[in-house]
Amino acid sequence: MPKTIQLTYIFDPLCGWCYGASPVIEKLMQQDDIAVTAMPSGLFAGTGAFPMNAGFAANAWEADQRIRHLTGQEFSEAYRKNVLEGKTGRVDSGPATLALTAVHLTAPDREFETLKAIQHARYADGRDNGDPVVIADILSELSLDAAAARFASPDEELKVLNESRIEQARAQMRRFGARGVPTLVLGEGADARIVRSDALYGRNNDLIASLRAD
């Protein structure tokens, strides 16, 4: 029986490049011989959060156009107007990251589905997914009632697990000298290594074939 290929996917729910990589990550998750563990990096959470500003908005929109060209992912005018140019929002992935951990605790098989919904809300629907109210609405729309309840009133278990997941992701990034997300790690232990990032934006069948041949 073929050995299962172990992958660790390190991401941030407000990262445009992670959104661009989502179709490839989803395809990897659909393979019987590939196991993908998702870990939020907290890139824009906590001390990494900041108010939206014109400079960040311009740089983000420029990068978004490159991502759209590479992947076909949608970056709507509603996103540009309401999120990047809204003037009142924050670049803060803390609420979305906490919500994903709540889903991890209560419905772990739906975590990636929730991540996709959070990304779609931002980039396609133009909803600010840095806003806890928006995140709560998304959990409700997905009928993730248990996760929504824990997100609304975070207990110690949720807080500790959330911080642990972030620290595990950051430890992996430090180990491999990764400077940003998405980061995809192949394997475990001493033989683990990073998969080159451009593979996340090409033909997913090529990536799958290369992982199986490794």
Proportion of β residues? 5-15%
Number of helices: 9
CATH homologous superfamily classification: Glutaredoxin
Task: Return the average pLDDT rounded to an integer.
Answer: 96
Summarize the structure.
The chain is built from nine helices and six strands. It has 214 residues and is of the alpha+beta class. It has a single domain, classed as Glutaredoxin, CATH 3.40.30.
Which key features would you list for this structure?
alpha+beta; Glutaredoxin; 4-stranded mixed β-sheet; 9 helices; 6 strands; globular
Describe this structure in words.
By secondary structure, this protein is an alpha+beta fold. The chain is 54% helix and 12% strand. The chain has 9 helices and 6 strands, in the order βαββααβαααααββα. It has helices spanning 16-29, 54-71, 77-84, 94-106, 111-123, 132-141, 145-152, 156-176, 204-213, and strands at residues 5-11, 34-40, 50-51, 90-91, 183-186, 193-195. The strands form 2 sheets. A 4-stranded mixed beta sheet has the order 2-1-5-6, with helices on both faces. Helix 1 links the parallel strand 1 (5-11) and strand 2 (34-40). The longest helix has 21 residues, at 156-176. The relative contact order is 0.19.
Give the SSE map.
Elements: E1 5-11, H1 16-29, E2 34-40, E3 50-51, H2 54-71, H3 77-84, E4 90-91, H4 94-106, H5 111-123, H6 132-141, H7 145-152, H8 156-176, E5 183-186, E6 193-195, H9 204-213
Parallel strand pairs: 1-2
Antiparallel strand pairs: 1-5, 3-4, 5-6
Helix pairs in contact: 1-2, 1-5, 4-5, 4-7, 4-8
